[in-house]
Amino acid sequence: MTDPEGGSTAAARDEEGSAAGRRRARLVLFTFLLTFVAARITTFLIMARRIPDLYLRLGGTHVHHLNYGIFLLAAVGAYLLFGHPSTRALELAAVSYAIGLALTFDEFGMWLHLGGNYWQRASFDAISVLAALLGLMAFAPPLRLWRPRHFTTAVITAGVATLFYLMLAESFRFAARVEPRLERLEQNAPR
User: Where exactly are the structural domains of the chain?
Assistant: First the structure.
């Protein structure tokens, strides 16, 4: 059914909105992963003294990058609640949201345990879960459009993910050997 002015149907508008949302989800996923990788590489290079110390310190306190992420998420939330963003502004908000999300959850272990070192396993797990959820939002069809082949694909994907995590458990032994070196690196980093 078309509207009185000959415009598109409600279903067509919903489909356009869904496609735009999926494009934004892909933008968020890409920016989220890029920010996470950049944050990890930068932190590692600073701790290894390969690049200058870029940490912000206020009164002798190191301001962790999760704080930048929290402020960015708060700003994006306020903008979306109180502003009237255009399509272009929504894309900028999506990029800002992804950066804030990555910076915050990169140090998830530190705020979950209220301290500890940067290389906590909880941070990497949180990033992995968020990346998977963002990937589903970006690439999976909406549930109302799922057909039997989609459910089959979901079951196969769950099986492969289970196999992956079983294999990942084996890699924990390797991580146990590497973690002390990363902790020493962090202890010797510029303060």
Answer: 10-187
The two tokens of residue 187 are: 């202890």
| 3-class secondary structure, 83 | coil
Full-model pTM: 0.71
Distance CA 143, CA 157 (A): 16
Mean pLDDT of 167-176: 67
| 52 and 42 Cβ atoms separated by less than 8 Å | no
pLDDT tens digit string along 113-167?
A: 776 777 677 788 788 888 988 988 888 777 777 777 777 877 887 788 778 777 7
Give strand pairing partners of 62: 57
User: What are the pLDDT digits (tens) for 54-78?
Assistant: 888 888 888 888 889 999 999 999 9
Beta bridge partners of residue 56, listed in sequence order: 63
190: three-class secondary structure by DSSP: coil
Give Cβ neighbours of residue 70 (< 8 Å, ≥ 6 apart): 100, 104
Residues 146-163 as b or e (16 or more Cβ within 10 Å = b): eeeeeeeeeeeeeeeeee
* Residue 50: both structure tokens together: 């390969």
**Which candidate, 138, 130, 118, places its Cα nearest to that of 179?**
118
What SS3 state is found at 142? coil
Strands (E) across 37-172 are located at 56-58, 61-63
